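User: Could you write out the 3D structure of this protein bound to S-adenosylmethionine? I've included everything you need below.
Assistant: Certainly. Input first, then the structure.
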Amino acid sequence: MPRKGHLSQSELYEYIARQYDDFQHVFDRINKERRYLNYGYTTSPDQSYEDRQEALCLKVFELAQLEKKHIIVDVGFGSGEQDFLLARKYSFQKLIGYNIAPAQVRYARERSTREGLSDLLDFREGKAEELPGLGAESVDRMLAIECAFYFDRPRFYERAAQVLRRNGLLVLADITFSDRLAFVTRRANNLGRVSHLSRNRELWQIGFDTVSLQSIARQTRPGAAMTVREILKGMIRRKDKGLTGNERSTWLKMALNTQVVVSGLLTGLIRYDLIVLRKR
Ligand SMILES: C[S@@+](CC[C@H](N)C(=O)[O-])C[C@H]1O[C@@H](n2cnc3c(N)ncnc32)[C@H](O)[C@@H]1O
């Protein structure tokens, strides 16, 4: 198995998809109720892990200024939990989700059918950089919650600008390196995708105006630290329920990467921002 930094582009997509399908399989086995996969937005130490995760999604929804007539695209939707939340809280015309992890897409689709929401929530397997099936200027709002660091950003910003209508909004909850770590992002392709703020801004400014950019490192760090603890606790609890070797290594890698994010958020070397962009 080549190292992640040396994967070809197609191998990188497969690697990421497999990782999220592994998470999905474990969620299926333990029948996890709320299947968010983000670090959350913490406002009180008493909040449960899932309440923090839900709060991050609600922040993004609020910034998106949603209206009844809107066509919304959600890229990197995980298990779709955030979109079921959206459907409970807001009225909109239709949401189209894109994700590259087949088991997550299957789960979200089956759940939308089961809950009678399949006309409203259309979950598709596809890359955020491609958004297959979407026409030019056909979308009012695009959401990207804790996932854009996986994308080929130049292609993603370009495609998002194509499909959004004029004045349409792209709202991101996004993790990037601070500009001080720009040199790191020039090395391996996966870190290059995380990128750093100035570079990302240069890219999105080709098609978008920046409406707002708010650092939420302080509100995301407690949930990130909790993620490390939850993963390790879960692995110990599930010891005898048989995690496969692959699943075990996927969860451990996630715990390790998240610990790096926790330290980065603490030192300011990693950023977590809520970003609202308006299509020009
Ligand atoms: C950290 S999870 C976030 C999930 C969800 N947004 C949440 O907050 O719970 C990242 C998600 O992005 C998806 N993803 C990664 N690269 C992608 C790409 N190029 N296009 C679409 N989805 C992608 C992964 O499969 C995963 O579901």
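Residues 112 and 245 are 31 Å apart (CA to CA).
User: Perfect, thank you.
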